[in-house]
Design goal:
Keywords: Membrane, Transmembrane, Transmembrane helix. The protein is an all-alpha fold. The protein contains three helices and no strands. The protein has a domain at about 45-155.
Length: about 160
């Protein structure tokens, strides 16, 4: 009663040259291919330096905000009579990282601007907008890095 043959058994045809698919974890068929990264050629001068400057600005601002939070924590612990030296040292280190990143941002801005002037790329609106916005952000970052110097100079 249950011993009926499958009526589709003869309808399935498997070609003889069909290679079974490789197993999922079989790395013998894996061939790594490097991604194609477009280079910043002569059609986009100063792009790499501009991106480096934007990255340095972002790192500087993260470091400045971190230093501010750590300074407020140190101030709060000191006012509560608890030891706050570690927070103060960490705030100084974070601010130092921000200053170094601000210097790198200024260098990247100068290199980007020089390359764009050299190749005559300041005729396009996008390049001019990037130069203006990057200059203002980098100037604000540099002023933030120089802000503690005001207290040192006024103390004399």
């Amino acid at each position: 009663m249950y011993n009926t043959p499958n009526p589709q058994a003869t309808a399935v045809f498997v070609p003889a040259d069909l290679v079974p698919p490789p197993r999922v974890h079989d790395l013998a068929a894996f061939s790594p291919v490097d991604p194609v990264i477009p280079s910043a050629g002569p059609d986009r001068p100063g792009l790499r330096a501009s991106l480096s400057s934007w990255t340095a600005n972002a790192i500087a601002w993260v470091a400045f905000v971190t230093a501010g939070v750590l300074f407020l924590l140190a101030l709060g612990h000191a006012m509560a009579g608890e030891p706050a030296d570690a927070y103060g040292v960490a705030a100084l280190i974070a601010f130092g990282v921000g200053v170094v990143a601000a210097i790198a941002a200024c260098a990247g801005l100068a290199i980007s601007f020089t390359q764009r002037i050299r190749h005559g790329a300041l005729r396009r609106a996008g390049t001019v907008a990037d130069a203006i916005v990057l200059s203002s952000v980098t100037a604000f970052t540099a002023l933030t890095a120089l802000y503690p110097l005001v207290f040192v100079l006024t103390a004399w």
